[in-house]
Amino acid sequence: MVQSNRNIRMSRDEVAHFHKEMERRMRGDFTVAENKRMTARREVYKVIMERNGGRNPLFCE
Predict the structure, then answer these.
(1) Distance CA 28, CA 19 (A)
(2) Are 52 and 60 within 8 A, CB to CB?
(3) pLDDT: is 33 or 46 the higher one?
(4) Of all helices (H) and strands (E), which one includes residue 44?
(5) CB 23 within 8 A of CB 15
């Protein structure tokens, strides 16, 4: 099992950057490159679901 470190050391700049990125993503302000990657992922997901009859292959027995 992978151990997680819950108390990661972060500088104030790293925390501020994290908060700005989280806010930007929650508002939906994505760059053109990010939109292209998300669209490509959705297409791959759609193909996988179609090939498996609408069942998620990760959770099938």
Answers:
(1) 14
(2) yes
(3) 33
(4) helix 32-51
(5) no
Q: Name residue, tokens 């990760």.
A: 58
One-character DSSP codes across 18-40: HHHHHHHHHHT---HHHHHHHHH
For residue 4, what is the enclosing H or E element? none
Reading the block at residue 2, the tokens are 């992978």
Asked if the model's pLDDT at residue 60 lies above 80, the reply is: no
Residue 18: alpha-carbon gap to chain centroid: 15
Residue 37 Cα distances to 4, 51, 52, 55, angstroms: 28, 21, 23, 23
